[in-house]
Write a structure and sequence with these properties.
single chain; 338 residues; alpha+beta
Length: 338
């Protein structure tokens, strides 16, 4: 499901029914950019079937997909056109426009060229785990993820409140401790990729790729003040990923142990739906277990989020929704995904 993901905690949500969520999303479907429109975004069916629902539930896990289309005119083309316009005006009036007039010319040039620009589309997967009280956004940057979260808060209703997942230990601090001790936290292993960066104006950076990290050299860089900004890890031999200083998970990959163990079931479950149900069940099943282990390795939830996690006021979804969260602890993953 995900190659990259940022994770948000659900601080509050009077969750509507699944049909109500689908109805709400239908007010903001994806529509292609107009001739002079630089960007358009909206929700599309996560199954890939244009006639399917905009909100899908598999084993109580809700999946959405936001599609974004952008049209951009190459900067070099805009610059050439503006120069031509400026030269023309200077020849006609004897004066070369400046400031506000140049800005207006640029906007007019871009507007005129947009109908000829090729559109580019991207899709962002969203996974809502009402029981685990998390929202996973398939993005590699906070800026992109926050844009998606803004749309969710606008559309999903129920006084939805989301906050980026925060832990007691900053990821950079924890990664530095693991690398200096040459020991991964329980259940994890450290792989062969790392980036260390000096937190000053110089931003001196050291990168290791396909290189063992249990060497004194890495600890020396940290002792000199460099902090890990990325570290490749594997959980239980089942899921590999790169942890970043912003608590983003990148290069997420389900390993052979997972796929081999689920091979028969995945083939049967996905037979009629192109594998969608199986993919969702397998991926969410693994990531729902990975996340609490990672949070524990990072010292647990930040105090404020830990307090919010004790609040049981997150009603279950009606109509094909998951079990009530009252029956599970905030990080309980013992119940397998169907």
């Amino acid at each position: 499901m995900f190659k990259n993901a940022l994770i948000y905690r659900i601080d509050h949500w009077d969750a509507p029914s699944l049909p109500d969520i689908d109805s709400r999303l239908s007010t903001a479907p994806f529509v292609e950019c107009g001739a002079t429109q630089p960007e358009s975004s909206g929700f599309v069916p996560p199954r890939g079937d244009k006639h399917a629902a905009l909100a899908e539930s598999v084993g109580g896990q809700i999946v959405l997909r936001l599609c974004t289309e952008t049209k951009a005119v190459p900067g070099s083309v805009v610059k050439t056109q503006i120069q031509a316009e400026l030269d023309k005006i200077e020849q006609e009036t004897g004066r070369r426009p400046k400031g506000k007039r140049v800005k207006e010319l640029k906007e007019a040039v871009v507007h005129a060229l947009l109908p000829r620009a090729f559109p580019k589309r991207s899709e962002t997967l969203v996974w809502i785990d009402p029981v685990g009280r998390t929202v996973w956004v398939g993005a590699g940057s906070t800026k992109k993820a926050d844009t998606v979260v803004t749309r969710l808060i606008e559309l999903l209703g129920g006084n939805l409140k989301l906050a980026l997942l925060q832990t007691e230990l900053a990821p950079a601090t924890a990664m530095a401790l693991w690398l200096q001790a040459k020991e991964a936290p329980p259940g994890f292993s450290i792989d062969r990729e790392c980036e260390l960066k000096q937190p000053d104006s110089e931003k001196a950076t050291v990168r290791y790729a396909r290189h063992t990290l249990d060497i004194d050299e890495v600890g020396e860089h940290i002792a000199q003040g460099k902090l890990p900004t990325q570290l490749a890890m594997t959980w239980q031999g089942r899921v590999s990923f790169v942890l970043t200083e912003a608590l983003t998970l990148k290069k997420i990959e389900l390993l052979d142990l997972v796929m081999e163990g689920a091979g028969v079931d995945a083939a049967n479950q996905g037979k009629d739906e192109g594998g969608f149900d199986a993919d969702v069940a397998i991926a969410t099943g693994e990531l729902r277990q990975l996340l609490p282990a990672l949070v524990e390795a990072l010292g647990g939830l930040h105090q404020r989020q830990a307090a919010a996690a004790e609040d049981p006021a997150l009603p279950q979804l009606a109509a094909d929704g998951p079990a009530s969260p009252d029956s599970l602890a905030p990080w309980d993953t013992a119940e397998a995904v169907d």
